[in-house]
Amino acid sequence: MNLKKYKTIVFDCDGVILDSNKIKTDAFRLATKNFGKEFSERLVNYHIKNGGVSRYKKFDYFIEKILDFDMDSNNKINKDILKKNLLENYSSFVVQELMTCKVAPKLKELKDSIPLSDWVVISGSDQNELRKVFENRNISHFFNLGIYGSPKDKYENINYLYSKIKTPALFIGDSKLDHLVASHFSMDFVFLSDWSEFSDLKSYAKKYKIPVKRNLSYLLEYLI
């Protein structure tokens, strides 16, 4: 793989740019702890198995499938209010932690090495939250095509940007969903493993012959 051939590089965020996967896992656990350990851990397991899916969809799953919230009942708990409270509890923890978590090593060096490529973030994280964090961490300027996240999913965001994405394009991710999205849009793909929570990453990568690197700094090898 020659990194210099790519005109566009698409980055996932959690586990790729930021060491934030565990932060998100802890946040789901904290946001739902009042519902009991069993329900909370069921959501955590669902979250880990569905890396890259937005918090909005995960809390919908929690309310409708795990809590078995009856949408047609006269239950006094309003689903929208419950979801709003869960999202607020989740976000208050996440934003604070994202301001201090590790940023991928050699991010600037990588950008300096391939200055002509367009960079864009396509994440399952909340878009407004992510833009705030990137601005605060002084890394938003690396991504000239923008920073995109939920409530739109990754497919929707790439569709929205598709006319601006020059080919060939490379998607750098850490989850099965990232690979599926890349394949859907005929992008090359590379896995980063150091911060990933995808337990089957190595076997999945072997099955589909996907290159695996530990973190972004190792992509500098593709410039040689």
Automatic annotation (TrEMBL):
This is HAD family hydrolase. It comes from Prochlorococcus marinus XMU1424. Pfam families: Hydrolase. Keywords: Hydrolase. Gene3D superfamilies: HAD superfamily/HAD-like, Putative phosphatase, domain 2. GO terms for biological process: DNA repair. SUPFAM superfamilies: HAD-like. GO terms for molecular function: phosphoglycolate phosphatase activity. Signal peptide: none annotated. It comes from the Bacteria.
